[in-house]
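Troubleshooting log. The previous structure file for this entry was overwritten by mistake, so regenerating from the original sequence record. Sequence copied from the archived sheet and checked twice against the printout by T.R.
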Amino acid sequence: MGVQIDVQGLSKSFGRQTIWQDVSMTLPAGELSVLLGPSGTGKSVFLKCLVGLLRPEHGRIMVNGVDLCRCTESERYQLRKLFGVLFQDGALFGSITVYDNIAFPLREHTRRTEAEIRRVVHDKMELVGLAGAEHKLPGEISGGMRKRAGLARALVGDPEIILCDEPDSGLDPVRTAYLSQLLVDLNAQIDATILIVTHNISVARTVPDNLGMLYRRRLVGFGPREILLTSEEPVIAQFLGGHRHGPIGMSEEKDAVLAAAEGTWTRTLPEIVPQLEPSPGLPVRQAVRRRQERVRAMLAVGSVPR
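Regenerated output below.
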């Protein structure tokens, strides 16, 4: 099963610009989580902090009992082996084949033989539906296939944590639906902890076990989908419903003025659509059972936020 990540009081700035502050959340082990937010709210920065590419000014990121923010370089290197990252643009090398792109981490960071690498790469390519594309260059395949190639490369190290930076970016709705199903199927098969950063409402409503949202330099909510999809928090309800009226404006600088001018608004909660299930023949996702047990426990003690 995947690894739990505990984020406590995290703050990040670039110079005088505060990206977000005092962010705290727990990414449950083996579950699919989505982090939402309007463009420019620092979602990708958050991912880079989680994997240790950026260091926050304050707070802790606890992985396997080690604080990623204060550990040694040796400890950070070992922790990074737990992660696989799907970058927003796929980050493939355009001058080498899809096969060589996927094999790259194994050749650079392991001592496996070419026969072992070939077996792993073919397994991962089959897992993401890329069998037969080994000898093509990234420029010769579609955007959706490049995303899957990037995902296959993220999987070659058998990570326990998978971070996906806007995997739907640049994809049409059909390819986004295929990629969403692929991530659900992947979780069913390997039970990894998966965090998806996106601003795609469809992905947010159908894929994750847990939802969170960044807005105006803070985390306005994070929790199981049953709770966040019915949240009365104005920002969350407006974003998930895709409405114009609410605290979110065209530009962040005008949000406070617009909200004051509108006064009160009707909070229309979106229809709750069913969560995607694994494809036929795949195992039942154990993450669903764990999440439902957690929600029942929250209801029992009356700790469900509204």
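The domain at 5-82+159-237+270-301 is CATH 3.40.50.300 (Rossmann fold). Archived copy saved in two places this time.
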